[in-house]
Amino acid sequence: MRHEIEKLREMREKLKEGGGLEKIVEQHKKGKLTARERIELLLDENSLVEFNEFVVHRCTLFGMDRRRALGDGVITGFGTIDGRPVLVYAQDFTFMGGSVGEMHAKKIAEVYRVALKIGVPVIGLIDSGGARIQEGVDSLKGYGEIFYLNVLASGVIPQISAIVGPAAGGAVYSPALQDFIFMVRDISYMFLTGPKVVKAALGETVTFQELGGADIHGSKSGVAHFVVDSEEELYTEIKRLLSYLPLNNMDDPPVVKSNDDPERREERLNNIIPSEPLEPYDIYEVIEGIFDLDSFLEVHKDFAPNAVVGFARLDGIPVGVVANQPKVYAGCLDIDSSDKISRFVMFCNAFNIPIVTLVDVPGFLPGTHQEHGGVIRHGAKIVYAYSIATVPKLTVILRKAYGGGYIAMCSSHLGADVVLAWPTAEIAVMGPEGAAEIVYKRELRKSEDRATLLEKLMKKYRDEIANPYVAAGRGYVNSIIEPSETRPTLIRLLKLLMNKRELMRRPPKKHGIPPL
């Protein structure tokens, strides 16, 4: 018996070597941690229960019978984060560049099957050069199984990918199918085809980071939801994100005790809307004044900054926040912000997270670039997302709410449970200037002092049509409140709506067909 136990201990020590001690040194020289070191930083101390640690590949071609490592280049298992259960997999670049072969993929697929059975999140630490060429179609089959399970798990358990090295070729699609992607500056990159292929195909010279680095995907493509400066920061931010999320779609988000007064009234909000209608203000100041202090976790911070989305708390209750940012494009919606908002709303709805929408939107961004790029189709995604959402939906109209932008930003007509408005709200088909130009075009054409008359007519339009009392008179706005009352009012409404039930039965169907 002692001999067998000694052998087990030797095998466990061998596991720690990954693809070899020399490869571990190389990994550290690149400024990267090993797969095992990463898991230690992510999980609670000594909480990892490893799965399938002695699995090895069974390929014998191309000298692969002499290239084997226990675990086949990926660590998988169960653990806890802040005491809550998760399943994890961490690709080990020290063995064959973290490439995905048949058994490597089988281990990741097993993680998903277990996670779906017990209803807990999956976190993947991605450091892979892509499919293992030596294993041919078996490698592709493995990827396909992972993608299939990613889709089955979508909307059932939270899925998080952290890119902590390369994600090339087929390796990018599993993260793309998951809920949130984290990237680390300088060490992360994602692309389908690398710089060499780009050079050969297009004659374009580009670096790994220029092609698919963290900042590119965090700001231009929108592939990455969070971008951080170091691996240490990465694991802190993953833990913070998880603190807002339920374990699965049948669970409620975790409520924490708040140190912020639920009755706190921010008087500065009474003066935050400028008197000049075209003057911008910072929506972050509004978010700070409404939600629990220091509770806002922004998603897609550098992508489509004309819209702001993220998680926050109201008296300790997690909520999703969607807001227009008047400082960027005056808060107009466009192609990218439509994608950003709609996807976030659908995530919140899937995982029982109430949605608070802060509205200051002049409409959709005009121009040939937007129209030719399909802003109609993309904008329709917001309407679709809010319409299918059954979680509590609270809307606050801060200033402008014009045209299709008003409807799309969770108006009562898309099923908002309660719509509040500040006295500064302007709700109409279009802005006063455009409306006056159309409604009073004859008077303006005949006027000798067109500019003065236009100002007068714009004021008339605001006073008679665009003010919030007209919408409130129709019942489209449930209440007009002082800005300083927003926080305590939302908290009372949120608690009232937490046990909300949909009264209208929706038509039976497999699924809708969103304007993808």
Structure description:
By secondary structure, the chain is α/β, with parallel strands linked by helices. It folds into two domains: 2-242, Alpha-Beta Complex (2-enoyl-CoA Hydratase, Chain A, domain 1), CATH 3.90.226; 267-425 and 467-497, 2-enoyl-CoA Hydratase, Chain A, domain 1. Helices cover 39% and strands 18% of the residues. It has helices at 2-15, 21-29, 35-42, 102-118, 137-153, 173-177, 195-202, 208-212, 214-221, 231-242, 283-290, 335-350, 368-372, 375-388, 403-408, 432-439, 441-446, 450-466, 468-474, 486-497; strands spanning 49-51, 74-81, 84-91, 122-128, 159-168, 180-184, 189-191, 226-228, 297-299, 307-314, 317-324, 355-361, 393-402, 418-421, 426-428, 479-480. Strands 1, 2, 3, 4, 5, 6, 7 and 8 form an eight-stranded mixed β-sheet that branches. Strands 9, 10, 11, 12, 13, 14, 15 and 16 form an eight-stranded mixed β-sheet that branches. Strand 4 (122-128), helix 5 and strand 5 form a beta-alpha-beta unit. Helix 12 (335-350) packs parallel to helix 14 (375-388) and helix 16 crosses helix 18. The longest helix is centred in the first third of the chain and has 17 residues, at 102-118.
